[in-house]
What we know:
Elements: E1 2-13, E2 16-27, E3 31-35, H1 42-49, E4 56-62, E5 74-77, H2 91-103, H3 112-124, H4 140-152, E6 158-162, H5 170-187, E7 190-194, E8 207-212, E9 214-219, H6 221-224, H7 227-234, E10 239-243, E11 246-250, H8 254-261
Parallel strand pairs: 3-7, 3-8, 5-6, 6-7
Antiparallel strand pairs: 1-2, 1-4, 8-9, 10-11
Helix pairs in contact: 2-3, 2-4, 3-4, 4-5
The structure holds adenosine-5'-triphosphate and magnesium ion.
Magnesium ion binds near residues 42, 43, 79 and 162.
Amino acid sequence: MEAVKAENVNIYYDGYIAVENLTFKLEEGETLLLLGPNGAGKTTLLRTLAGFHKEYTGKLFVFGKSPQEVKDFISYVPQSHTLNERVPLTALEVVAMGGIYKKSFIHFKIPNEILKSAEEVLEFVGLRHIMNKPFKELSGGQKQRVLLARALISNPKLLLLDEPLSALDPSARVEVANILSKIKKEKGITMIITTHDVNPLTEIGDKIMLLNKQLVAFGTPEEVLRDEIISRVYGPLSKAIKIGSKLYCIIGDVHIHRGERR
Ligand SMILES: Nc1ncnc2c1ncn2[C@@H]1O[C@H](COP(=O)(O)OP(=O)(O)OP(=O)(O)O)[C@@H](O)[C@H]1O
Ligand SMILES: [Mg+2]
């Protein structure tokens, strides 16, 4: 069964159209990398798939149902995390919160079975050893891995990740990309990941979508990461290059400008 099926979907904010006439399919287990410039509608699409934003027309199915009907199978990690860092939660407690939300009960004390699951998912992301550290003291890469663990604790079938690599330095990006690769290989969860930096993720992307309000391109990395396609969105200086079997993207930016000015 398709994990996601969209047919002629328009997404609105008070009548303003943010995503227009979108049609695509994603099979169960596939990873989709969602690319597009600021304001392209990436977050809007993720929030609509997560069932949070309901102002859309057209056909939109997640595992054959409307997003609202399958909310419990979806984990969404937003673009900017609004964890109040003044609340002194440990990494373990942050992850456990993901288990509590989904069960919709409120406990003053986190139940032991949830703490145990939280420990297991922290182990999965390689952070069991720091589980009792305050969240706010973790590095950017560790924080993002804790948030991935929090999204995993409810055993989702679809994981929606909005810019999980932004605000991370290159080595932390690789660290988080490795965990995403592990989620794909060992858990087989369908993922949609938005990113401005596709390079650390090209290996796990089965499909790439280039969105700029409308669909610009959709296909395998080989099909989409081509000069003539990415330059339609990112300008004429964008290049796709292949080193060995791996594809890289240089999104028309400072590097090339600098080279030309010299
Ligand atoms: N809550 C909102 N109310 C009204 N308009 C919105 C709202 N959120 C987003 N928009 C508009 O919808 C369009 C798409 O925004 P969206 O945040 O989905 O883009 P994005 O691709 O995620 O961009 P970025 O790369 O900056 O995160 C933009 O024109 C934006 O101004
Ligand atoms: Mg966004």
